[in-house]
Design a protein that fits this description.
Layout: E1 2-10, E2 15-18, E3 24-33, E4 38-45, H1 48-55, E5 62-75, E6 81-94
Parallel strand pairs: 4-6
Antiparallel strand pairs: 1-3, 1-5, 2-3, 3-4, 5-6
Amino acid sequence: MISILVSGSLIGKPVARQARNGNWFVTAQLKAGAIDESFLVSVVAFDESVAHALQALDKGDDVSVSGSAKPSSWTARDGSTAIGLAVVAKQLMTTYGVKQKRAVQGAKPQYSLPARSPLLDQVDEDGSAPF
């Protein structure tokens, strides 16, 4: 395994799952890479604070994840070989912001959840926005 920092956008809503031993974890998939080439990053979060922060995100949100990674490959539907990464997330950062982490040994970062826009309360009965 290697240590990695990877950024990308979520392909779908992160999913909370339960292992056979009863422990909870969250999985997600990111699309990462440059404009001309991208690859799939499978993310799993076992740490409770990272899992909660990841689960608060939605499809299309940008996120940066750091942790242990290993390369993966599979055969795509068209028969070509696809490559990706499998990452066990240790820390997470989003564009929604993270409270500052102090450089104190043993301190865990405190993640803030996405803010709810007051504009969402101004939606008309037909579902359209007044702006």
